[in-house]
Amino acid sequence: MALNHWLLLLLLQVLHEVTGTRVKLNMGGFEDVVIAINPQIPEDNKMVDAIKDMVKEASTYLFSATRQRFYFKTVKVIIPSTWEPKNEYQRVTTESYDKADVIVADHYLKHGDDPYTLQYGGCGEPGRYIHFTPNFLTNDKLHNAYGPRGRVFVHEWAHLRWGVFDEYNNDAPFYTPGGDNLPEATRCSAGFTGQYIFPLGGKSYRDCKIDHRTQLYEHGCLFVPKRHQDTAASIMYLQSLPSVTQFCDKSNHNIKATNLQNKMCNYRSTWEVIMASPDFASSSPIMVPPPDPTVSLLQKQDRVLCLVLDVSGSMDANNRTVRLKQAAEIFLLQVIEAGSWVGIVTFSSTAAVKTHLKQISNDSMRKTLTEYLPTRTTRGTNICSGVRSGFQVFLHKYGSTKGCEIVLLTDGEDTAISSCFDEVQRSGSIIHTIALGSNATKDLETLADKTGGLKFSITDSVDSNSLIDAFSGLSSGSGDISQQSIQLESRGQSVGSQDQLNGIVTIDKTVGNDTFFVVTWGTSPPEILLTDPKGREYTEKDFAVDNTNVRTARLKIDGTAETGEWIYSIKNTHSGAQVISITVTTRAASASVPPLIVKSYTKSDTNKFPSPMVIYAEVSQGFLPVIGAKVTVTVEPEIGTPVELELYDDGLGADILKNDGIYSRYFTSFRGNGRHNIKVRVQGKDQTLRRSRRQSQALYLTGFVEEDGQITMNPPKPEPTDDELQTNLGSVSRVASGGSFVVSGVPLENTITDVYPPSKISDLEVKLDEDDDHFCLAWTAPGNDYDTGQAERYEIKMSGNPLELRHGTFDDATSVNTTGLAVEISGVRQMFRYKPHNFTKENGTSIYFAIRAIDGSSNVGEVSNIARAVVLLPALPPTPASPVTTSTAHTTPDDKYSVSPTPDDKHTTPSNVKPTCANDTNTINTTMETVIIVCASAIIICAIVSITVCVLRKQRYRSYDTCMDITAVNKNALTIL
Ligand SMILES: [Ca+2]
Ligand SMILES: [Ca+2]
């Protein structure tokens, strides 16, 4: 079946492409795990000791948790350059903060210390990094809430390395196990015992009531586990409890829990996912206990970098030498951080050192360096001679090549490039590659892959401005965000005679220092008019114009640039058309307020057709997700027309979580083989842009039930308030290069057939309509090719047993007649009303539904999440599960625990209230309880009697014309089984 074929291909792809990390697995030991400390953190040796202890504890715990298979062998800690040097600190080589597996940094809003792993891929795909705060590492009082640090590290490592997900769910903390059973806490395994309590303020609490509309415990109810349990699983739920030493496996996995692990991993246990990993396949159990991990400390030095630039004859073509000079000037004058050391080498058949390392101490040194940029070309391309000369530049000053960076730009073929691969690997230098034009040698990226460098691919189409973007993207990976250059605008296009290039650049409050406006042209200097937010005008006379061989006009704004909209108008006064570009770069306005930044990732660096590519953009401010931005990506192939895609943070299709600041999209429009360059553009408007909380975090345990039955509560978890989070960010703009990926195996365009199925529907909801016994289903339409276009039809299945609806048994489950169900275009919310034949109802019965989409070429999409509808009888008692008792809780010594019931608590209006299934929700909202109780009698599902279709077009939040009040739905609560 096509689907299985796809999953296999996808999996294989994932297994061999690990983004960012350079961790190696050697005989069960993880080597070269990098933990980097943010340069803003003050020197603290206790923290380094805590990291060492954590790693040691984690290694033992991991070894036992993975049934003697994996442990931590070598770990490198990057000490920031801001700390006092010590003899024991080694020099950083190819490791960097930006690529670290674990980051130690403070949140921007210092509330809470939840460790988390940035995960944006699907089940089994590796995450980006683990984040710990310094307080988490040094404050032992947090043990009660998170458990020992080594255990937390293993929990996060499983997220990072094996792509498993949490088994708790703060958004859907309870589920109904079915039948007459009481609700249960979302957890794995279900063997955990504890008490369901509702805090009353102070140290008082009572038993939780059941909300009869949902059959779940009321909003605000907490599950407090016993401190001493009999169950050993699972680490992805409660690693903090002493008994927990294992991951949930097939034998004890809780398939009914409404958690992300079930949703993302098709109801498989975490251990089954780990067993399917390439790590597992390449390892076997180890008979003897492993040695303690070796932790080495590395310290970041000054940034040392050499531009190694191709001056072969082909650089004369397509204006490449001029474009190189324009882009490299932007790098030297605007991008590279003060204090860095820069050398310049050129190469053709032989290499020449243009300048040895010079330290960027002031603007005049920046200017001096630009004078060494090449203007003339000679014959031949010998990349290795250029790289070796780069090494000589480093050795000349440092006696070492370790930790130095080479920026290697070439447009030529070179069959001898592999002759220096080993040398490069041994050097400990990082090589960033820029491939210019479509003839750049195919193995160029190997140099970056071997050294952890960035990769860019630049076409001769100057419209994209991508060479400038590449140089702008070469910021230091040191984590010192306040020093990094940020690109606000990057545009280039052919402008007719007397026509204008017009636009607006927004400078937001978080940026504005070192702001440069740079205009380039192809033939003759244009007229420039730039107006700042206060109305001050700058013309070309205010710009430094160089029309000799760089064709650039540059304006540096003194001090911090005015916040607001800067309007530019650039007029081509030349008699013919010419290419004009504008680039705006800046730095943070203040060292204490992190700027909003965007980073772009792809699922892998290489892609074999027809496997789909997934493109991600992370928009954040100081580790807080930023949501509500418009994010567009331009994918530019070596040859052919660029494709523009909008990325979404809507939790649908390629996007695994809504509102986590990760914007995602499938890319399947392959038109040819070779390099594809990525450029990402972020626009945020006043009204929509805001910060958000992290969602996926290690569980903060609210309390324990002690052996004597008393309850010990932990202090409530500190979190930023809504006000702090939503402080007006203003309007922002950002443009960044997302590097490049290489595609192979694409057939000739006219032979490409449709092999891409519709994406998995992950937001199916269902509700029994209390008026006429119709089930009302709602979901967002997928596309023809994943999340693009329009599918052809749907298959819907129902069952009293949710397990029957999973992939594998879906085909055999009872079909829902979907005659008359029209398929909407991708992204449109659609509805379907359905009434089974001979439908009789029994109180508390759950009916489950699942759906999948099929496209016009019979490509079958993955089975959706499984949605549940509950039948409720009027006789159902509207109040408590058990008699209300009031007791008091122990508190931990430092505890300031107090909870005052909010109005919400009193009225028990949970966020996970089920939606109503009626046409007029204005009425329903006030009379929901009464109306639902109308549903009565016993249930057996047989056949299909009648169907009504109701479709909502684009107005997904206007509930009056829906058959379901979508706005009242907490998606996770209802749709994840
Ligand atoms: Ca997302
Ligand atoms: Ca398709």
TrEMBL record:
Residues 1-20 form the signal peptide. InterPro entries: CLCA_chordata, CLCA_N, CLCR, Ig-like_fold, VWF_A, vWFA_dom_sf. Gene3D superfamilies: Immunoglobulins, von Willebrand factor, type A domain. The chain crosses the membrane at residues 931-952. One of its GO terms (cellular component) is plasma membrane. Residues 304-474 form the VWFA domain. Residues 892-908 have a biased composition (Basic and acidic residues). It comes from the Eukaryota. Residues 882-891 have a biased composition (Low complexity). Residues 881-914 are annotated as: Disordered. Keywords: Chloride, Glycoprotein, Hydrolase, Membrane, Metal-binding, Metalloprotease, Protease, Signal, Transmembrane, Transmembrane helix, Transport, Zinc. Belongs to the CLCR family. This is Calcium-activated chloride channel regulator 1-like. The gene is LOC114598791.
